[in-house]
Write a structure and sequence with these properties.
Belongs to the universal stress protein A family. By secondary structure, the protein is of the alpha/beta class. The protein has helices spanning 16-32, 45-53, 57-61, 63-90, 93-98, 112-120, 135-140, 143-151, and strands at residues 7-12, 35-42, 103-109, 125-130, 156-160. The protein has a five-stranded parallel β-sheet with strand order 3-2-1-4-5, with helices on both faces.
C-alpha cells in the first residue's frame, strides 16, 4: 500500500541547501495535495553564549536587563527569519493556493534537531537540505540532518546541494 502523505514539514536553516530543498517540498506537497509546514529553528543563542563564555550575564547585567536583551534579540530574530521564509516561497504562493495547498510558517527557538522532531509528530514526511559534500562539511552543516535522520520515526527526505550553490542564501 502506498503511503498517504497529508502533511509535510519543510525544515530550513535559511541556507542555500534549504532553499534548494524547498522546491522538492513544494513539488511533493502539490503532487499529494498535502499541507506544508515551513519551520526554522533559532538556536538558543543566550544559553550558548553563556555556556561558551562561562559568564553569568544575568548577574552581570541584572536579571531584568538580561531578560529584556534576550527577548528583544529573539523577537527581532524571529521576525526576520519569518520574513525570509515567506520571501523564499512567495514565488510559489499563487500556484500553491490554486492547488489548495495550505502553508504555515513556524519560527521556534531551541535545539534544531529536538524541535524538528517535535514537529515531526504532526506530519507524514520531513524535507530538508544539506551540504553533505565533504566529511568536514557534513560534520558541521549536516549535523542537524544527521540527527533528524537518526532519531525520526517520520520519513526524511534530504536534498543535497551542489558545491557551487552553497554560497547562495535565502
Amino acid at each position: 500500500m502506498l503511503p498517504h502523505i497529508q502533511k509535510i514539514l519543510y525544515a530550513t536553516d535559511l541556507s542555500g541547501p534549504a532553499k534548494h530543498a524547498l522546491g522538492y517540498a513544494l513539488s511533493i506537497a502539490k503532487i499529494y495535495q498535502a499541507d506544508l509546514m515551513l519551520l526554522h529553528v533559532i538556536p538558543d543563542w543566550a544559553r550558548n553564549v553563556t555556556l561558551a563564555s562561562g559568564l553569568d550575564f544575568a548577574t552581570i547585567y541584572n536579571e531584568n536587563t538580561w531578560l529584556k536583551i534576550k527577548d528583544d534579540v529573539l523577537r527581532v530574530s524571529k521576525k526576520h527569519a519569518k520574513e525570509r521564509i515567506e520571501s523564499a516561497y512567495r514565488q510559489y504562493k499563487y500556484e500553491l493556493e490554486a492547488a489548495h495547498i495550505a502553508t504555515t510558517v513556524h519560527v521556534q527557538t531551541g535545539h534544531p534537531v529536538h524541535t524538528i522532531l517535535q514537529f515531526a509528530h504532526e506530519v507524514d514526511m520531513i524535507v530538508m537540505g544539506t551540504y553533505g559534500h565533504s566529511k568536514l562539511g557534513s560534520f558541521f552543516a549536516g549535523s542537524v540532518a544527521q540527527g533528524v535522520i537518526a532519531k525520526s520515526r517520520t520519513p526524511v527526505m534530504v536534498v543535497h546541494l551542489e558545491k557551487d550553490e552553497t554560497t547562495k542564501l535565502l
